[in-house]
Amino acid sequence: MNNSIRRPQGGGTAFTFIELMVVMVILGIAAMLAVPMFSSAADSQLQAAATMIAADLDYAKNLAITRQMNVTVVFDPSTESYQVQNSGGTVLSHPTKTGASFQVNFASDNRTNQVDITDATGFDGVSSITFDYLGSPYSGTTTTTAMTTGQIALSAGAYSTTVTIEPVTGYIRIP
Predict the structure, then answer these.
(1) Spatial CA neighbour of 168 closest among 136, 139, 131
(2) pLDDT value for 143
(3) What is the mean pLDDT for each group of 10 consecutive residues in the chain (175 residues)?
(4) How far is CA 22 from CA 14, 15, 30, 35, 130, in A?
(5) Across-strand partners of 83?
(6) Domains detected in the chain
(7) How far lies 62's CA from each of 126, 132, 147, in Å?
(8) In sequence order, what are the beta bridge partners of 74?
(9) Which of 24, 82, 142, 151 has CB atoms 3.0–4.6 Å from 122's, for a disulfide?
(10) CA distances (Å), origin 126, targets 14, 110, 152
(11) Do 46 and 154 contact (CB within 8 A), yes or no?
């Protein structure tokens, strides 16, 4: 008589139900973490453009303070662009692009070509903002009208955002 324990053919190489469930849970968690990272190109471009405008406005404000002169940022929604000028209306040199003027055009840049400047008249009805030697914002190209509201509205596809400039202080934020 043979008292040995019989083993099934194949040597038990299959996965157990528990092992399969653990793998499925790990894959589910990985998928939940990865899916939010794949936002649309329009949303990414919109955030990039808003950040770019905020940084350039902040640069213009700081330039006005350090050089003790008026610096104006003029927006043109028809061409999806803006430029940074001195008080005489001359476009300034770009701080990082040697030899280039400080003009930004969203339509001609692949990183922001889906972005539209939907409203740049948020500076009390005009499309330009001037910072004086203290960094205070003014509506228009002169320092005669203190700004009471300051917003640039942007959109890209179904997404939209606003860059806001606070009166008196010139604090710039993206909600």
Answers:
(1) 136
(2) 85
(3) 60 80 91 70 91 96 95 94 93 89 92 91 88 93 88 93 93 92
(4) 15, 11, 12, 20, 60
(5) 74, 103
(6) 41-173 (3.55.40.10)
(7) 22, 10, 17
(8) 83, 128
(9) 151
(10) 72, 28, 11
(11) yes
Instruction: Give yes or no for a contact between 80 and 58, defined as CB atoms under 8 angstroms apart.
Output: no
Residue for token pair 């692949």:
110
State the greatest distance between any 2 C-alpha atoms of the chain, in Å, as a whole number: 111
Distance CA 94, CA 101 (A): 5
Amino acid occupying residue 164 = T
Half-sphere exposure of 82 (CA within 13 A, CB side): 26
Residues in the chain, total:
175
Comparing CA positions, the residue from 79, 60, 77 lying closest to residue 69 is 60
Per DSSP, the residues of 9-23 read TT-S-SPPHHHHHHH
Distances (CA, A) of 6 to 9, 10, 14, 35: 9, 12, 17, 48
Among candidates 149, 172, 152, 147, which has minimal Cα distance to 162? Answer: 152
Beta-carbon contacts of residue 157 (< 8 Å; ≥ 6 apart): 40, 42, 43, 46, 114
Cα separations (Å) of 41 from 38, 69, 87, 158? 9, 38, 37, 11
